[in-house]
Design goal:
The complex is a heterodimer. By secondary structure, chain A is an alpha/beta fold. Chain A is built from 38 helices and 40 strands. In chain A, helix 33 links the parallel strand 35 and strand 36. Chain B starts with 5 loop residues before the first strand and ends with a helix. The chains are: A alpha/beta, B alpha/beta. Chains A and B meet through helix 9 and helix 17 of A and helix 3 and strand 15 of B.
Chain lengths: 1080, 383
């Protein structure tokens, strides 16, 4: 059946802000879906609150609603747009949950909207544990065995069925206490009797333990004709017990015989049919007992997932695009395979390489968090690498992580740290953590056998054997003391095993560049092979490449003018989807100019790594060696380092020195902006102010500097993103502590010390410049005062308190800085305004995090224009010579991962902690803030109790806030100090006990979810602080929105005013943009 | 890794790849074919259809799960030589009894690893199937080139004689649980005679599982010999090489068709049936060898993902459409994948419904064969 003609308009729901567990992969999938549907002539209506996405570009969908993804707002969109169908399977769990809610609310029925892709009952059947278990029973697919017991006899009976080890969980106990894993009969009886006693209803749940089993995933696609194909199989290196998002995963499955694989495939087909996913992709997880081969299904996702993105990039099969087409009525045999162009999509890709995905963590940002990997996901990003062997792919992936590792150890980072003790290694192997793969290396080096490591870690022996071979070769390499005397066959073998030049240099005492040049002289160069879905069975024209060390290369040079765009690598806090957005825009812009683009990136979740985004895609780690290898293989006219965040910027100098032409702002100017001394001279020359500052090379020097410029000071390392290791310190003791951290984070760079401006307003400016002209893209005023990382603060465009004079002065300073730095392309400046004086905090001559937000607020694709400027066009030619000053208010708010790190305090500071952002747009500030907060996942209350407790310095400011809350009908509740201050100011307030001063105390009320909102500003007093941390962490645990700054509280009050009665008005981005005016 | 012994792969067109030896040492001659299945190397090595061939696995990491006694498709290893990017030194599977290296040594299969297999595939794709030699003894390129050019070609050679059983055998083994989730075996039992042109065990298991009493006969058995066994149906198996020289079987099949004996053919059996109908077969450039070939059933419009292994195919233009219709087509290249005879109760497929290795999408064809027999019994009874 060809396309459905009874549908004209389709609503797609995105996934909102980037959070742990839901990252760029849904921009990839949503964008592919929007493009596919538009190609087919459907009108696409999109709802997504995340401005940093390509999907929310006004060109991607016909109608783009940057609105919070809550059922109320989406219902408004439906009411307004009247789509014929809703496609909920491409926006992650958020979209699926919202769709379910819309059905429950009767919205879809009321407006006659058909749910396509997966129906309501299908989603329920896949997601409800009991319904799913029943379905599996029906088709005879095993799940881990389980039982409920109310007596010891029942438990013993259950044990016979389930076997040992098993997991015992008493029902209805506080925090799951009283449970455990029983490995033997005695343990079983003890835990069960204890559990039965503890459980309020004398009930224990007994589950078969599958921890340590081999874990697999299959990506399955089905069409309405019931054709089903497996796109990709994935095997986890980390066995069951570690969330698949936190596991090192490998495609295809490595250790399954064909019998086992086909049995799994049979089960997957049966499952997708029984659950009833009509069209599109699903992901099904399996576990296999390594001793017996027994297979059980763990769960299925009836939608496109993170693994689908990985599978798409791993195979070249565009799952999301095909899923969208299937939903519109096509069948798999009617859709061509984009890669071969000659064969249909109805087949199973076969690959002739190995793919390894490694997660990236951010535990350094959350020192209180438990770094043990469990079934709850904790990683913030991932990198993928392709190699001809697992060994090569793993080493590439590890260097692609950009955690200062250049492979499986044997790098400078490894040399800088002492090897762990045997006891520590054993501990690490037993307890999964993000460093475990390196500890396997240490274990092998310490002489542990593969069998022993397997016993401790349960990692499959095949993986361990491969790791052993890498480590053994590391030993071979370290016998040479000069890379140039190494026999060519040894060097070649090292490259084939994935060793980077840095590793080889580290092992042989040479320098990376020496190794590279020696290699080149010997003709040992990277070859580039194609990803073609078919293992070269058919010729393919698709230029999707990976590097390896093989005999022949497939990348050919077109001879056309080419620009290489360096992407941002794995997502991390401080560098995420915004930069991918910029890279994609750059590719679009250059394509419009007729310039060929080469994209280099290693993040499988992204739009930039879709093979049709650029003319050529190189799926490679972003290291000097890997980028230069591409540069060697292709005639490249220019390289863009401005758009991928700090990653490519850090490479700029080295690349330029190796002969790469960097286009746009010169690396020298980048350096002038990032080098403290040079920057200071520049500001002095321009007569601009900056907070008093200096650099220090040692901790002692840092102390001297601080004493000279006076506390409080901000201390941080240079050349890092996201405020890594940045702190505001008020005394020498803390300065010493944090200066040492800064020195450790960036050992070769000086420590920066700035005077901290208290109570200053922070302003961000994004501007674009060519040789003649500087145009401001946007001026954003932060709601929180300076000192909170700009990525974590809420900002408003246009500014809402600044005078025209101040804005003019900001404009003048921006122009002066852009001219002085000879900026070509984008620049971002952070200003602080203290008592009417403007200070320049930072200038970044590159795309900033706010570029996509500003672009959407003003209706101008800044990154695209910047790319064209860098390629030689002028702003005049591009028609962007005037600022756009919108009448509507745009607010950007952060989304935080605190709920994933229980016990971690949620206070904001100069170190960035948010993983994503949302945009709220409306005609007034309050409504825009309300939308932003809702979009960020804050459940704004419309009535009930609000807890207000602030430090002494804030009491005066808290009074009007509390008064307004009371006027809005909230019951204000406070503990003693704040209570008394409010009473004194005649604000109606109820008093509650401080923690453990009397019961019920404030913590009890939080746990009972009596508060709809908490306003709690941090005190410097350590004793008070302890209670505050309890309050704030409990609030996170119970999902109560918490505000920790007065400025934030003020904004929140505005939002509550606007949100009273839950009225949300929605308006498409296209309508906002149509109403925009430009100012000169 | 330093102890590796060199090996070399020399094509008849003079292209040479240097790599390392694994498996047995020696020289192995044959036609290079590449298989794109990512798992199932042991089934491939033991598939008699690979007689006379050097098999290259496009998936670069081979041997990961070792070998075991169950995943064998015949009594011997038929692949002449084995070409991989990297073989695994460990066997990681609860069923493994040996490593691949040990297995190849035991069965005297010469292997080469460490070569750019993708480069070789692209070479074969461009130039078509070619003879080659893998050698870990003689490493002299010129000497090997001379030898390879003198080695026998597959074209026009009756490879069936090299792999078929020479005695009649009753086969009783069905599927086991490690292969597929089993359903009850249907009743009543029918008797089938299966021609062994190089038959894979899993076809026999599939027949047993579908309620057949299976008698396997040598490939050169005459129609009279087979009809004397009074079978309810005849099965024509897969097998190696060129169908044309297997002319004795073509004659035999004509008899079955004329006698209206229910017949089911797979792969070579399909090609031989086409020849019996007077159609022609041709040698494909590099054939289909893999587990991901999409085949559309032209009756239902549904696609199945199939396991395939053939270098020859039926020429659709040579087919007399009054005698048979094309029931299945390959979605990738439109080659003929199945025939349904018009006058006789007979159907054949080019692909491998028995999988092993590969998807189980087409296992239902064994049940269809059963149904064909049931229907033809009704017809006979009706007179």
């Amino acid at each position: 059946m060809p396309r459905r003609d009874d549908i004209e308009k389709v609503l797609i729901i995105g996934s909102g802000p980037i959070v742990i567990g839901q990252a760029c992969e849904f921009d990839y999938s949503g964008t592919q879906a929007c493009k596919a549907l538009r190609e087919e002539g459907y009108e696409v209506v999109l709802v997504n609150s995340n401005p940093a996405t390509i999907m929310t570009d006004p060109e991607t969908a016909a109608r783009t609603y940057v609105e919070p993804i809550v059922a109320e707002a989406v219902a408004k969109v439906i009411e307004k747009e009247r789509p014929d169908a809703l496609l909920p399977t491409l926006g992650g769990q958020t979209a699926l949950n919202t769709a379910i809610k819309l059905v429950d609310m009767g919205v879809l029925e009321k407006f006659g909207v058909e749910m396509i892709g997966a129906r309501y009952d299908v989603i329920k059947k896949a997601e409800d544990r009991e319904l799913f278990r029943d379905a599996m029973e029906k088709i005879g697919v095993e799940m881990p065995r389980n039982a409920i017991a109310y007596t010891m006899d029942e438990a013993l009976e259950a044990r016979d069925k389930i076997g040992l080890p098993c997991v015992i969980r008493p029902s209805f106990t506080m925090g799951g206490s009283g449970g455990g894993i029983a490995y033997n009969v005695d343990e079983f009886e003890r835990i069960v009797s204890n559990g039965l006693a503890l459980s309020l209803n004398s009930e224990v749940l007994i589950d078969e333990s599958i921890i340590g089993w081999k874990e697999y995933e299959l990506e399955v696609m089905r069409d309405h004709k019931d054709n089903v194909v497996i796109v990709c199989s994935i095997e986890n290196l980390d066995p069951m017990g570690v969330h698949t998002g936190d596991s090192i995963t490998v495609a295809p499955a490595q250790t399954l015989t064909d019998r086992e694989y086909q049995k799994m495939r049979d089960a997957a087909l049966a499952i997708i049919r029984e659950i009833g996913v009509e069209t599109g992709g699903s992901n099904i997880q399996f576990a296999i007992c390594p001793k017996t081969g027994r297979m059980t299904v763990i769960e299925m996702n009836p939608r496109v997932s993170r693994s689908s993105a990985l599978a798409s990039k791993a195979t070249g099969f565009p799952i999301a695009k095909i899923a969208a087409k299937l939903a519109m009525g096509y069948s798999l045999d009617e859709i061509p395979n984009d890669i071969t162009e000659k064969t249909p999509a109805c087949f199973e890709p076969t690959i002739d390489y190995c793919v390894v995905k490694v997660p990236r963590f951010a535990f350094e940002k959350f020192p209180g968090a438990d770094p043990t990997l469990t079934t709850a996901m904790k990683s913030v990003g991932e990198t993928m690498a392709i190699g001809r062997t697992f060994k090569e792919a793993l080493q590439k992936a590890l260097r692609g992580l950009e955690t200062k590792r250049f492979g499986l150890g044997a790098d400078p980072e490894d040399r800088a740290k002492p090897a762990p003790s045997l006891a520590d290694i054993r501990k690490s192997l037993l307890k999964p953590n993000c460093e475990r793969i390196f500890d396997v290396r240490h274990a092998l080096r310490a002489g542990m056998t593969v069998d022993l490591i397997h016993e401790l870690s349960r990692i499959d022996r095949w993986f361990l054997e491969n790791l052993r071979e890498i480590v053994a070769f590391e030993g071979d390499l370290s016998r040479y003391s000069d890379p140039t005397t190494m026999p060519p066959e040894v060097l070649r073998e090292a490259k084939r095993l994935g060793f980077s030049d840095v590793q080889i240099a580290t092992l042989t005492g040479g320098d990376e560049e020496v190794v590279r040049l020696h290699r080149r002289a010997l003709g040992i160069r990277a070859a580039f092979k194609k990803v073609d879905t078919c293992a070269a069975e058919f010729a393919s024209a698709t230029p999707y490449f990976y590097s390896t060390f093989e005999r022949s290369t497939e990348a050919t040079d077109s001879g056309a003018r080419k620009v290489m765009i360096l992407g941002g690598g794995p997502n991390r806090i401080g560098q995420g989807i915004e930069f991918d957005y910029c890279c994609v825009q750059a590719a679009i812009g250059l394509k419009e100019m007729g310039i060929e683009t080469i994209m280099v990136n290693s993040n499988p979740e992204t739009v930039s790594t879709d093979f049709d985004t650029s003319d050529q895609l190189f799926f490679e780690p972003l290291t000097r060696e890997d980028v230069l290898a591409i540069h060697d293989a292709q005639q490249i006219d220019g390289c863009i380092v401005q758009f991928g965040g700090q990653t490519p910027l850090n490479l700029a100098r080295a690349l330029e020195q190796a002969g790469v032409t960097i286009i746009g702002t010169s690396p020298d100017s980048i350096d002038a902006a990032e080098d403290r001394d040079r920057f200071q001279r520049l500001l002095k020359h321009l007569d601009l102010r900056q907070p008093a500052n200096d650099t220090a090379n040692t901790v002692d020097e840092a102390v001297a500097v601080a004493e000279r410029i006076g506390y409080p000071v901000v201390v941080r390392p240079s050349y890092v993103l996201g405020g890594r290791a940045m702190e505001i310190v008020y005394d020498t003791e803390s300065l010493r502590k944090f200066a040492a951290v800064a020195a450790d984070v960036a050992p070769d760079a000086p420590i920066l010390i700035d005077k901290f401006l208290e109570n200053a307003i922070e302003v961000d400016v994004d501007a674009i410049a060519d040789a003649e002209r500087v145009v401001l893209g946007g001026v954003m005023e932060h709601i929180e005062e300076a000192g909170i990382h700009s990525g974590d603060s809420t900002c408003v465009l246009p500014p809402y308190t600044l005078s025209d004079e101040l804005i003019d002065e900001i404009r003048r300073q921006t122009h002066a800085l852009a001219k002085a730095l000879d900026v070509r392309g984008l620049m971002n400046i952070q200003f602080a305004i203290q008592r009417g004086t403007i200070y320049v905090l930072e200038v970044n001559p590159r795309a900033s995090r706010t570029v996509p937000f500003v672009s959407k607020a003003i209706g101008v694709p800044l990154a695209r224009i910047a790319a064209k400027v860098m390629a030689g066009m002028t702003l005049a030619e591009l028609g962007f010579t005037e600022e756009v000053w919108p009448r509507h208010v745009s607010v950007k708010a952060p989304a935080f991962p605190f709920n994933k790190f229980p016990g971690q305090d949620i206070l904001l500071g100069p170190e960035m902690k948010s993983t994503g952002e949302v945009m709220g747009i409306d005609s007034d500030l309050g409504s825009a803030v309300a939308k932003a907060f809702l979009g960020a996942g804050l459940d704004l209350p419309t009535g009930g109790k609000v807890f207000v407790s602030v430090r002494d310095e804030d009491k005066e400011h808290a009074v009007p806030i509390a008064r307004r809350l009371a006027e809005l009908g909230f019951e204000v509740v406070s503990t003693e100090g704040t209570h008394d201050a409010l009473v004194a100011a005649d604000v109606p307030v109820t008093r509650v006990h401080k923690i453990e001063v009397g019961r019920p105390d404030v913590l009890d009320l939080i746990k009972n979810r009596e508060f709809g909102l908490i306003v709690n500003t941090p005190s410097a007093d350590p004793e008070v602080r302890e209670d505050e941390v309890k309050i704030r962490t409990a609030a996170v645990q119970h999902g109560i929105p918490s505000i920790t700054t007065i400025a934030g509280a003020k904004a929140c009050v505005l939002a509550l005013e606007a949100y009273k009665g839950k009225r949300i008005e929605v308006k498409a981005l296209q309508d906002y943009h149509a109403a925009l005016v430009s100012v000169t | 890794m330093t102890d590796r012994r060199k090996a070399v792969l020399v094509f008849e067109d003079g292209v040479v790849h240097e790599g390392f030896a694994f498996g047995a040492k020696g020289e192995a001659y044959g036609e290079v074919v590449f298989n794109t299945a990512m798992s199932g190397y042991q089934e491939i090595l033991t598939d008699p259809s690979y007689r006379g061939q050097l098999v290259l696995m496009t998936y670069p990491l081979i041997g990961n799960y070792g070998v075991n006694p169950e995943d064998v498709e015949s009594r011997a290893v038929h692949t002449q030589g084995f070409i991989v990017r990297e073989f695994s030194r460990v066997a990681s599977s609860h069923r493994a009894t040996a490593t691949l290296d040990e297995y190849l040594k035991e069965h005297h299969v010469v292997g080469i690893e460490g070569v750019d297999t993708r480069d070789i595939v692209m070479h074969v794709r461009a130039r078509g199937a070619m003879r080659a030699v893998i050698s870990s003894d003689d490493l002299d390129h010129d000497s090997l080139l001379r030898k390879v050019r003198k080695s026998p070609s597959l074209d026009g050679r009756d490879c069936v004689r090299e792999v078929t059983r020479w005695a009649v055998e009753e086969w009783t083994e069905g599927f086991d649980d490690s292969f597929v989730k089993r359903a009850p075996v249907p009743e009543p039992r029918f008797k089938v005679v299966a021609y062994d042109f190089g038959i894979k065990n899993n076809i026999l298991r599939g027949l047993v599982e579908s309620g057949f009493d299976v008698t396997v006969v040598p490939g050169h058995s005459t129609a009279a010999e087979v009809l004397a066994l009074k079978p309810d149906g005849v099965f024509l198996s897969n097998g190696p090489g060129d169908p044309e020289p297997v002319s004795y079987a073509v004659e035999t099949i004509r008899t079955f068709l004329g006698e209206r004996v229910p017949t089911f053919g797979i792969c070579l059996g399909h090609q031989l049936t086409a020849l019996a109908l007077g159609a022609k077969t041709y040698k494909m450039k590099f054939g289909h060898h893999g587990a991901n070939q999409p085949v559309i059933d032209l009756t239902t419009g549904k696609t199945e993902i199939t396991s395939q292994n053939h270098s020859f195919a039926v020429d659709p233009d040579s087919l007399d459409l009054s005698m048979a219709r094309i029931s299945h087509k390959n979605l990738n290249d439109d080659t003929v994948e199945g025939l349904e005879l018009i006058e006789s109760p007979c159907f054949t497929v080019q692909y491998h419904p028995e999988a092993a290795p590969g998807p189980h999408d087409a296992l239902y064809l064994f049940a269809r064969f059963r149904k064909l027999i049931e229907e033809s019994k009704v017809e006979v009874a009706a007179g």
